[in-house]
Amino acid sequence: MYYVILDSEKYPLSILHEDQYFQWYNPMKRDHRVEFRGSMNQCYSYVSRREQNPQHPLI
């Protein structure tokens, strides 16, 4: 499982494997937002769709 993470509006979306996600982030803290969960290919597709449609708000 991979996660697409939004740290803040200043930084681009990040794609992390679930092992990396749990090393870097605490799901109980509200310092980030999980935008999408899925396979690596699904996450890359999600990010590319978001980049192609920039008028869509991140939040």
Q: Mind explaining what this structure looks like?
A:
The chain has helices at 18-24, 40-52, and strands at 2-6, 14-17, 33-38. Helices cover 34% and strands 25% of the residues. It starts with a strand and ends in a 7-residue tail after the last helix. It has one domain (2-52). Strands 2-1-3 form a 3-stranded antiparallel sheet. The chain has 59 residues and is of the alpha+beta class. The chain is built from 2 helices and 3 strands. A hairpin with a 7-residue loop joins strand 1 and strand 2 (14-17). The chain is flat, with a radius of gyration of 11 Å.
Number of domains: 1
| Shape call | flat
Order of helices and strands, N to C?
A: EEHEH
**Sheet with most strands:** 3 strands, antiparallel
Portion in beta strands: 25-35%
Q: What order do the strands of the largest sheet run in, or round the barrel if closed?
A: 2-1-3
Distance between the termini: 23 Å
Q: What helical percentage do the residues reach?
A: 25-40%
C-alpha-based Rg, rounded? 11 Å
Please report the number of helical segments: 2
Structural class call reads alpha+beta
Low-confidence stretches: none
Compute the number of strand runs: 3
Global mean pLDDT:
88
